Amino acid sequence: GCPVCPDKYMYECTEGLLCYLKYNTATTFHTAGTCRMGSIDRPDVVVDPQLRVKYAKNLRVCDSSVFPVVPNSNTAAISITVGYKCSQFIKDCYDLK
């Protein structure tokens, strides 16, 4: 039964269900998308397409936080790819081969 409404099942009590959800849900997925990448002119963008942080000098973000949209899959492979691309951007910036 429901702790809020003992005479009902949990799914029949909106208040009980909301209470349950509030205290028993958590993410177990890979976090991503907290430093959105995109056109530097957009106000909701943190990093440009070369992974440079807006308004900061010599700072780049190279992990899953730059994803504009959170993928529906494991983020490991794409995060490794972002890191690799970032290393290429840095090498190009300093003419390193």
Automatic annotation (TrEMBL):
Record-linked InterPro entries: FAD/NAD-bd_sf, GMC_OxRdtase, GMC_OxRtase_C
GO terms of molecular function: flavin adenine dinucleotide binding; oxidoreductase activity, acting on CH-OH group of donors
Domain Glucose-methanol-choline oxidoreductase C-terminal: 11-82
Similarity annotation: Belongs to the GMC oxidoreductase family.
Protein's recorded name: Glucose-methanol-choline oxidoreductase C-terminal domain-containing protein
Protein species of origin: Oppiella nova
